[in-house]
Amino acid sequence: MEFFIDTADVAMIKKYYNIGVVDGVTTNPTLIAKSGRRFEDVVKEIAEIVKGPISVEACSTVCDDLITEAKKIAAYSENIVVKIPMTAEGLKAVKVLDKLGIKTNVTLIFSANQALLAAKAGATYISVFVGRLDERGQDGMEVIQEVMDILDNYDLDSKLIVASIRHPRHVTDSARIGAHVATIPPEIIEKMLSHPLTDDGLRIFAKDWEKVQKG
Ligand code: E4P
To answer: Does residue 147 line the site of ligand 1, with CB under 6 A?
Structure first.
């Protein structure tokens, strides 16, 4: 399973990328706006740090404009994946971009049928937003299971990204289902790393280590 970090915060990207557990990055306009920096500068800086796929969103609404925007974004770095919205115009653009060899990540997917359409259009990645589904009283992980079943049934090439992750359990459940990628906010990676019993254990071992040093 691959882990992407879901942020445009360069310090956080460096921190977790350097541990060696992060394979790529996903951003969106909201995350870039939070960084308070110019879009192009942030993307280029991230691309200098991370060698794996970096998803960057195209915000046009019409197919031709999406293609123009995607070409521009993809030219920033060879590992850029262009996020394309889950719309009819978006899927048209995905088909063209696939032929041009530009990698895509179809974003804002909330149902198995949307995922199926994106996969048929030739998306490199498809992002299902589980947290936002859960917040509406739907079961995000159920959609993940459905999408994985469909991708397996037809041997489709798209990789499923579990996005909008709200807690560590989302990651565990995604891994059990066999989702290809989880894109995880830094604060959730931090929660995955730690456990109070690990801290307690370390404290006890440190104390006992002191004792045996004294003899
Ligand atoms: C994924 O690529 C998105 O950036 C992200 O997971 C959106 O999640 P949110 O629901 O926290 O905005």
So the answer is: no
